[in-house]
Amino acid sequence: MRAKLIVAVALVAAQFPALATGPASEQVPIVVTLSAALESKLADTYGIEEGEVLRAYVAKSLTRVIGRTTAARAVAHGVSVAVVLDDARPTHPTRRQLADNPSVDFLRSISLGGAVLTGTMRAADGRVLATVSHQYFAPDLVSISPAATAWADARVAIERFSVELAAKLAAAA
Q1: How far apart are CA 63 and CA 29, in angstroms?
Q2: Closest CA to 129 of 78, 88, 172
Q3: What does the alpha-carbon distance between residue 54 and residue 154 come to, in Å, rounded to a whole number?
Q4: DSSP reduced 3-state for 125
Q5: How far apart are CA 72 and CA 24, in angstroms?
Q6: What is the pTM of this model?
Q7: How far apart are the first and last CA of the chain?
Q8: Model confidence over 60-84: pLDDT tens digits?
């Protein structure tokens, strides 16, 4: 029974990294928005529900990476982070694309995916401490992420962005 409880707690912690990084009081406030152009692209092509998927990827990545570095100092200084996901393209078809075209194969159909993100860190008084812009799209089909998710290369961009933003946050806090 005890082993099952430990496994259950580990699974919950894996699904909610913010819980594993410390109490809510040690988390930097993060707001993630989508640009109007990306929202339009999601509505027209990829599926509007994919916006929440992308927002969640960004929030989880930033929470995890910042939590490992300087969250306590940043929170003490009242730092907040606002991220705009300016653009994103899937590596594999999204659910909507699969539904719209039954001949598309999820794993065999690939594209040059990636994302463009801009993050702004602000002090408690509203002053901009730093701005980070990051863009990554797979350069060719051989270089795409091997992950079997629609947003595989967008996640690569998000992870790289998170590391860059956390480094600037550490310098600013």
Answers
A1: 9
A2: 172
A3: 8
A4: coil
A5: 10
A6: 0.80
A7: 44
A8: 999 898 877 665 566 656 888 999 9
DSSP 142-161: GGS----STTHHHHHHHHHH
Rounded CA separation 47/94 (Å): 7
For 104-113, write each residue's pLDDT tens digit.
Answer: 999 999 999 9
DSSP per position, 64-117: HHHHHTTHHHHHHTT-EEEEEEEEEE-SS--HHHHHH-TT--TTT-----EEEE
Q: Token digits for 107?
A: 């794993």
How far is 9 from 85, CA to CA, in rounded Å?
32
pLDDT in tens, 12-71: 344 434 433 344 446 788 999 999 999 999 999 999 999 999 999 999 999 898 877 665
Q: Which helix (H) or strand (E) holds 2?
A: helix 2-15
